Structures are given as structure tokens and as C-alpha cells.
Amino acid sequence: MYQPFTLVELPRPFLLFLGEECDVAFAKTAQGLRDWAPEACIGEFACAGSGVSIGLPALRPREAKARGARAAVIGVANIGGALRASWLASLLEAMEAGLDIISGMHGRLRNVTPLAAAAEKFGRRLIDLRVPPADIPVATGRKRSGRRLLTVGTDCALGKKYSALTLVREFRKRGVDADFRATGQTGILIAGSGIPIDAVIADFVAGAAELLSPDAAPDHWDVIEGQGSLFHPSYAGVSLGLLHGSQPDVIVLCHETGRDHILGLEGFKTPALANAIQMNLSLARQTNPQVRCAGVALNTSRLGPEQARQTLADCSRELGLPVADPMRDGAELDRLVNACLA
Amino acid sequence: MYQPFTLVELPRPFLLFLGEECDVAFAKTAQGLRDWAPEACIGEFACAGSGVSIGLPALRPREAKARGARAAVIGVANIGGALRASWLASLLEAMEAGLDIISGMHGRLRNVTPLAAAAEKFGRRLIDLRVPPADIPVATGRKRSGRRLLTVGTDCALGKKYSALTLVREFRKRGVDADFRATGQTGILIAGSGIPIDAVIADFVAGAAELLSPDAAPDHWDVIEGQGSLFHPSYAGVSLGLLHGSQPDVIVLCHETGRDHILGLEGFKTPALANAIQMNLSLARQTNPQVRCAGVALNTSRLGPEQARQTLADCSRELGLPVADPMRDGAELDRLVNACLA
Predict the structure, then answer these.
(1) Checking CA distances to A177, which of A156, B135, B136, B177 falls within 20 to 30 Å?
(2) Mean pLDDT value across residues B311-328
């Protein structure tokens, strides 16, 4: 009954558009594609005068088209998810150069008159990833077969998707049958299917999470990309609906060293890790009384290797749980993966 | 900037349509209008063969029209919020008799082809209340002036709206400047404005709650209608977004005696009252560290007067908080209201 949209029809490879964002933390889509689908990324481009880069070849749309690019992907997500007027010239340049446009923003490409006109004029496609499937049912709370892991966070944009992708890779290395279940636009671009959970009507969020990870074989793992945080003043409702509908057997808490405050909301502190684990488990028990926390995925990208190792060890001792940086291989990651599968 | 829709344009009085529901708990809209806007209710009607009634005069649409009715209000909300095909004949009968149709369902009247055709043919209006305002912003968490009370619940459909309406009435009796802030279709019909919070895109629920109760005078109270429950496997995300965005100074927990399980989901127990209070306060502190619980609004409609009095007293002693049934006047209600305003 439910047909997730798939990557099959998406025109690849991509030229990644970085807008004019200076804060690289908002270029999640571009970074995610670079790291997890590098074969699909021809290069990057930005608004005139913007110095932002994620380390791909900087190409104007015409050059990218000449090298084989088929679509420009909007690789940044500003607060509120609206298309910026200042992006328009760049997007029109891409369409004129022969590229389709793919967006994961809340605002629909098709509703932007100049883009719709250009699509008509140049015969290009406008592809909105953030359109949830129609007819999502209300969640039933019915227990599903198979096993589930959900990455949860102390904040947005600190590694929930990367952690989930890493865990799937590690599960598969160990011969475990596992699928990555995408809940955001970047994850959907990488995985080829999924549901943009934060674009779902509020009453149906838990129902969407139930759809996303259906009944499966008893030893199959769905590793579900978390969204937001129970402690985020803007998005906590999305996180709770996803937590309830996912019915996780295992949660992994994601955090970034030094992230003391909610990104973009300086007045709000991130929670202590032990509190965050406790709150997530307490609420998750409502739909899966057996839920447990396997450990913490700590983003230590701002630290050097030695300092990172020390931080992971300290944090692990403090919590009495495995703590690993999914972006750094090693014994810590092995321990976290083993704890997930235990 | 924000223009809530108002009752001014709604065609009154109403004929209340009860569908074919046998479970009176789902006739929330009809009951709410009967109790809180009786002057607007001419009568009730149902599908042929249905014995359901909420105690208003049973009138066919033609009779109701003759007595002055201007619109039929769909007074029941089935799970999922879709229009039932079996309602169609009754709604067409109402339109042919000269009535507009008002709906608070998720499914849009205008998308039901036979209704749209009949509206065209008979010159009737189809009014969908559950369409949130456009351009709701993401919540900022910014502290707003004025005071706020939110009714929260152990489950759906047990008295959060009635409790809020009663508290506003009692606040005003004491000379306190107070407004009822509606978050559901029935509340919106009664109040004349509001936001259908569960129809908002998930990312914007807390933002909608911020819009709903804007900055106000320091001694003004917004009494906000709660939705769902943090413990409801289907709707908890809506409840949490509303809790965060409302930034309540005071919460009142609503429960019904004997409601041991979540309505319609027998496998799920309702929480202990003390746990429900603790969980709501714990999450609410994220946007208002000063939040407190003033007491419990206990729906004792299934009990006789003496048994109700005893139950309220027992519950109050157990929790160490005022416990009152908002539908029963008396010392208990006074104590609860005083605790809210303390």
C-alpha cells in the first residue's frame, strides 16, 4: 500500500548548491551527500561572493553540466526551511545550464514563480523531496516484528544521521541484515527512500514512523535516522513522535563535544547526557517497555586524535556505557556496535 | 501579522451532525458546542438508523432549516479524521435543505467530489476549520510576557477543553483578565478563533503554540486548551510541541476516573497521575523553568455526587494537590482555581 519514493528516478550525479550560508553546520545535505554518496557528487557551487565550501570541486553550473551533472541539489537548510530569494539567480543559472533542481526544503520549488516559469521555459524538473506520502495513518502502537535502533540527540545537526549510517555499515560488516531508514531529506537522497518526518502533519508523525520501519524478519535490524531532540524548544514534538512510532529496541544517544547550547538558540542549554538518556528511555518505554540505551555516539570532530580518545574514555567511564565517535574507527566503535547487537 | 480565523463569518446557528458513531466519546465537537455555545445549537441529526443522541432536538435538515439553522456542523471525529463515505447521504441532504457544511476533520470537504459538486449545484459553502494559518514560523523559545496555563492529559477526550473553559469562566468571576486559547476544532467553534494544532506540519507545532498565545499584559492569563497526551502512542508529539511552545507557568493535569487504558488502544495503560505530572513538568521546564502543577481536573461524570466527592478527596490527599471536577461546582473547584492563581 505504501510506496516510498526512491532514488531510481532522481537525476544523478549532482552539483551541490551551498547558498550563501557561512555556518557550515547548516550545509548538512551537501556534507551528507559528499560523505555517504561521493560517487553522486560532481562538484559544488554557491551564490556569487560566498566563500563557503565543503571541499568539492567548485564548478559553475555550465561546467558541471559539461562534466555530466544532471541536477543541482540544494545542499543547505536554513532555519524554517524556506527558499531564500538570494538563491534565485544561482538556481536559474543552473536550470539555464541544463540541470534539474532537487530540494529538501519545506518551501516547495513549484510554488516559486520564477523557478516554475524557468522549468517550463527550459524543460527542467523541480523535485521536492520534502513531500510526505499521502494517506499516512494514525499510529496504532502495534508491536512490529524485527529489531529497531533509533539514534536520538541532545540537539539538531550533530551526528544522528552519520551515526545511523555508520552503524548500518558496521552491522553489515558483521553479517547482520540491516537497513538504514531515512527521516530527512539528506538521508532520503543517500538511501533512495524514506519519509521526511518533520514535513508530516503533526497528528501523523508516529504513524509515519510506523510506516517507515514495517514488520521484518526477527533478526533484521532497521537503523532509523533520528530527528531533532526532546530538548529542542522548536522540534521536540517531532522527536517524540518518531521515538514512539519507531518502537526502538535500542537507542544510541548522539552528542557533539562542546555543544553546550542548542544550535541557534543560545538561551537553551543542551541536557546532561545521563539525563538525555533517561528521558528518552522513559518516554520510549510507552511503546516498547524493553528499550535500552546501547551507548553514546560522540561527535569529536573538533578535537585532535589523542584528545578525542581521552574524551571518549572519560565519557564512557562516567556513564558506564560504550562511547564512540562513529567517524573514528577503533576499539570504541567496536564496543558500541557490540553493545547495540548484544 | 497573524490573523486567526474568527467565528464572525461562520453561519450560525448550527444543526449538529452525529454520523453513525455509537461511542459518545468521539462526539466531542457536538457535545462541546451543546455545553459551551448552546445558543448556537438548533438541534442534532444522524445517519439513518443510528440511535446516537446528545440530547438536543432531533431534526431532519429541512426542519432545522425551517427553524433557522444555517449550517450543519460535523460533530464527531473518528480516528484518523477522515470523512466517512456513509455520512455522504446525510451531508447531501443537509446541503439540499439549504445548509452550509462546517467540518473540523483532517479530510477536506472540498476534496470530496460529491460534496464539491453539491456545493456548486446548491450554492452552499464547505468550511474546513482544520486548515492552519499559512506561514507559521519555527518556534524561537523566546519568553513571552503575560501568564499562561495549559491543560495536559493522561489521554485524549477526557476533559482538557472543558477544564480550560471552566478555568477561564472562574478566573473571570474573580476579576482576572483571561482568554481561552483554542487548539482543536470544537474549541475554535466555541471561541471563534484558534489554531488546529494537530493539523500543523510537525516542524511548526511549537511555533503555532507560540503564535496562539502572544505577548500580553503581565497580569493577563491565557488558558490554553491541551491536546492528546505525552503518553499517547499516536499523538504524544503534538502534546510535547504544544507544551514547549505554550511555555506554561501553570499546568493542570486532566484525567477521567476509571480511564485505565488509552481510548481505543487497549494495550496501553494511562500513566499514574503523579508520573504524568512529573513528566509534563520535567519537559515543560525546558522552555519555562518556573512551571508548576496547580492540581488535577478529574472528570467524575461516571460517578454519583457522593462517590465523586470521596474520589476527589482521596486523590487530593494522595497527590498533595487540589483535585476538582470542573463540571461540579464547590469547594474543590475553588481550591483548584486559587492554586492556579496563587
Answers:
(1) A156
(2) 97
Cα distance between residue A162 and residue A160, in whole Å: 6
- Which of A145-154, A269-278, B69-78 has the least mean pLDDT? B69-78
Distance between CA atoms of residues B89 and B95, nearest Å: 10
Q: Which of A12, A77, A75 is nearest to A46 (CA)?
A: A75
Distance CA A170, CA A338 (A): 10
pLDDT, average across residues A125-138: 88
Cell numbers that stand for A206 in this block: 508516529
Q: Which residue has the cell 476579576?
A: B175
Picking from B140, B235, B283, the nearest residue to A203 by CB comes out as B235
AA letter at B337: V
Query: What is the complex's ipTM, to 2 decimals?
Result: 0.87
Domains of chain A: 7-128 (3.40.50.720), 147-341 (3.40.50.300)
Q: Nearest-CA neighbor of B267 among B239, B221, B292, B233?
A: B233
CA distances from A267 to A138, A227, A264, B142, B209 (A): 35, 21, 9, 9, 19
- The C-alpha cell at A7 is 532514488
> Computed over its alpha carbons, how large is the radius of gyration of chain A?
20
Residue B112: pLDDT over 50? yes
From CA B299, how far away is CA A270, in angstroms rounded? 37
- Asked if residues B47 and B107 have their Cβ atoms less than 8 Å apart, the reply is no
Asked if A149 contacts A216 with a C-beta cutoff of 8 angstroms, the reply is no
**How confident is the model over B229-238, as pLDDT tens digits?**
999 999 999 9
Interface test with B, best of A229, A265, A286, A287 (most B CBs within 10 A): A286
pLDDT, position A24: 58
Q: Does B48 have pLDDT greater than 80?
A: yes
Residues 6+ apart with CB under 8 A from A342: A294
Question: Which chain B residue shows the shortest CA-CA distance from A141?
Answer: B233
Residue of B nearest to A243 (CA): B237
**With bands split at pLDDT 50, 70 and 90, how would you rate the model's confidence at B24?**
low
